[in-house]
Amino acid sequence: MKNGPAALLGSFVAATLGASSLTAQSWRSLDVARQLADSSPTAVQVVYGTGMFGLRGTSNPLLYHMQLRYDATRSQPRHAFDPATRKLQLGVQKSDVRFTGRSDNEDGRLQLELSRVTPLDLSLDLGAVEADLDLTGLKLSRLQIESGASEGKLRFDSLNATPMSVLQVSLGAASFRGERLANANARDIRVDAGVGNVELDLGGQWTQDIDLKVEVTLGIVTIHVPSDVGVHVSVRKTLASFDHEGLIERDGAWVSRNWESAPRKLRISAETVFGKLTIDKTGR
Amino acid sequence: MRLAILALILAVPRAPLMAQQASAIQPAAARGATTDSAAARAQAQAGLSSRTPVEAAETARVQLGRAAMDSLRELITKFRRDPQAVPLPPNDEVAMGGRTIAAGTQVDGPIAVAGGPLHVYGTVNGDAVAVGGDIIVHGGGRVTGNAVSALGAVALEGGTVVGEMRQLAGTIGEVPRAAAAPETRVGATRHAVALASSWLVILVLIGIGVLVFANSYLEGVTESLEGRFGRSFWAGIAAQLALAPVLALLIVALAVTVLGILLIPFAIVAFVLAIVGLITLGFLAVARITGESLAPGTRRGYHENGAALRALVVGVVLYMGLWVVASAFAWAPMVETILRGIAVAITWVAATAGLGAAVLSRGGTRRPSASLAAVAPVNDVPWQTPTPVTGVVAARRPTPASTHRER
What we know:
The complex is a heterodimer. By secondary structure, chain A is mostly beta strands.
């Protein structure tokens, strides 16, 4: 009798999950690709709701290659390219991006390859996904990632050959890790997260100074900066902590000791509520 | 027929799609062994002869038996209904067993094959489709539209596809409607119980929240209910009848002014939220009183807050338990209907009385005992401020409300 509430809750969860698995499913696989006709800049919009999402570049003469496994009763694929406007839409229909809280959609997956030859303006609109974004070798003029509840990893293992106007990441409730982000070749990096852990590694090849704006409402933000990069941090925090080891306070901001002499500079504007901001300048 | 269908299904390459597509975009030499995979394996499984030379036109065609033809026609029919399909020519124009478009020739699409490969050496002006077969676009070959293969692969061996290369695997055909899925009685019962249980849990959680953050309001409504249930009930009915007119009046009043028109949507939302809040508060108060009467925790030595929580949970479980019990009989529609009717009636009475009490107590801010306390005499004489000499210790003058509390 002591376990009454727990038993009630357990029964409730079991009944809910049991009921949710009753709906009919129709799992399908779709494999679409398009030959590369030219290397004109292309705007790519990817929409994906729930499941595993992988993105990488391809050296094959293809503009895109999408492999999608989906439940046709819940989502419909989207693969449209307009050669006139150079707009490419991939993934699933926009209306299908919603979080249902059901576990049986975990079998869904989207594996996408994009041309490494074509300059891309890439926009990712993700729902609740586990994303592995290897953007190494892609020519990205702009990158925008919006995600509801996801676990995402983004990496640039080599320098983006095209200067990126802005790299923007907007997350709802997420765990996000960006690796070697200096290789993105972006002057402006913005990360906005509601709840979650955000880890940004600014390693890679620095071609210019970088402005980094981070807003996290509730969570932990860790920014790894190469030791030879000068850092200037202005923080607005509410009920949050700021680990500024190795930084000195100057004019209301925190700067690294090599701020004036550093060949490359990183200006961080951070805002956090109920969180923790850590600047790691150990050169990781 | 089933054997042939099975053969076609087995003909789908077992390799991952990535591997299929990777091979599709590789040069011919690297792909030689896989070009006829789907059709060849389909025929092998079905015990059919398989010859796929690609030099001469029509030599790639596969001889199909009647059963295989029938199953292919079924597959074509399914494919036509698939959302990812492209328009197909009539069935009598679909090349059964495969087809070769010879070099130097042009054909107008869409062209379609089934149960065999489509080799393209020439030009297809439009879409090229293979159902249960591969499409191989050889050097010099060109498809100006899309190349679509269902249960097969699209392979580039030096040719060009202007449109999209598309491969469909898994289930082919019309997408079943989710709502059309037949639900068993057990499933329906589990679903209904889960729904009712979730409402029970939600109400308990809301009740705990109210106890923690707005207990004084809950107590106000509870006091208003105690001993005056009938009055609260009739007040609740009056409130329900007045809902629509009050909302209409509110809208009209706002519409009179220009600025007010802009506020109408917000006013409607606020009104609905206020009513929902009052009903919830009132229902929780009824549940608490019911729980106290059934499980008098204070008499057993519970702490005051613990007793209130216990009473609230017992009450909510009692009322919502009716719904859970009714849901548990979803497998027996007649019994379920009767039980649901009882649950609706009891819940409506509780919610109506609760709403009435919430309205009478102004959302729990005005207690009936407060008005009695307001007329209680207070002897002012002892609290008259003495003439200060060296300072007077501050003391709180009793108010009617505090006097009542001290009692």
